[in-house]
Amino acid sequence: MRALEIEVFSCRTDNYGVLVHDPETDLTATIDAPEEGPILEAAARRGWKITHIFTTHHHIDHVEANLALKEKFGCEIIGPVNEALAIPGLDKTMADGDEFHFGEHLVRVIETPGHTAGHICYHFPDDKILFAADTLFALGCGRLFERTAADMWHSLQKLSVLPDETAIYFGHEYTLSNARFAVTIDPDNERLKARAEQIEADRAQGKFTIPTMMGLEKETNPFLRAADPAIRRNLVMESKTNEEVFTEIRKRKDNF
Ligand SMILES: [Zn+2]
């Protein structure tokens, strides 16, 4: 089986667009459809035709180009069953644990309620790739619009059991702000400090911070580290539950 090819580009204000191409079958999926123009340009640059849209959640900056792309390419739109009515042009719904194939590549759907009620992530276990959209960011996690912090903590736990070598593609370039926040929560984490410095340098040059890796996130992303003794000490929350610590971290980020 030949490796998937991935094209990443920026669109809208701070969204990332991601195309996934299977060279064996010539299938190309866009992960969400934030904006028609940049998606068409990226596809043309690589000589790919969009055959699928893998929708993660209903927010307009993730579905706006669904109908335009469907009209142009006749592509199939896959999306979360719990947001089916809010997703334009949806053909096929997916629930937690559902599996399907993209060419020969296995795809597993992971429901991650929190940012929205029905948000799903697309995991390619054999390729060690996760499309996490607005659930898990580099050094961050999605804002809580439709579910509780406890729900989001549970969703992030489902992602954090994936192998450390999993490459994570996420929905927005928020990494600089996330890094500056993360060091206030976990100030003695040397790996985090080094990463934050690197991010400052990379973003100053406009470099993309996508993809990230699960192992690195587990070591440095405070939203995955509510159980960490140093973070609990820093927040004076040693006796609290992981959910309570996570809730406090999320609240602080909302006001950062
Ligand atoms: Zn969103």
Summarize the helices and strands and which ones pair or pack.
Layout: E1 5-11, E2 15-22, E3 27-31, H1 36-46, E4 52-54, H2 60-63, H3 66-73, E5 76-80, E6 92-94, E7 99-102, E8 105-111, E9 120-124, E10 129-133, E11 136-137, E12 140-141, H4 149-160, E13 167-170, H5 175-185, H6 190-204, E14 212-213, H7 214-220, H8 229-234, H9 242-254
Parallel strand pairs: 3-4, 4-5, 5-6, 10-13
Antiparallel strand pairs: 1-2, 2-3, 7-8, 8-9, 9-10, 11-12, 13-14
The structure holds zinc ion (ZN).
Pfam families: HAGH_C, Lactamase_B
GO biological process, one term: methylglyoxal catabolic process to D-lactate via S-lactoyl-glutathione
Protein name: Hydroxyacylglutathione hydrolase
Structure, described:
Helix 5 (175-185) runs antiparallel to helix 6 (190-204). The chain is an alpha/beta fold and 256 residues long. The longest helix is centred in the C-terminal third of the chain and has 15 residues, at 190-204. It has helices spanning 36-46, 60-63, 66-73, 149-160, 175-185, 190-204, 214-220, 229-234, 242-254; strands at residues 5-11, 15-22, 27-31, 52-54, 76-80, 92-94, 99-102, 105-111, 120-124, 129-133, 136-137, 140-141, 167-170, 212-213. It has one domain (5-254): Metallo-beta-lactamase, Chain A. It has a 6-stranded mixed sheet with strand order 1-2-3-4-5-6, covered by helices on one side. A 6-stranded mixed sheet has the order 7-8-9-10-13-14. The structure holds zinc ion. Residues 57, 59, 62, 115, 134 line the site of zinc ion.
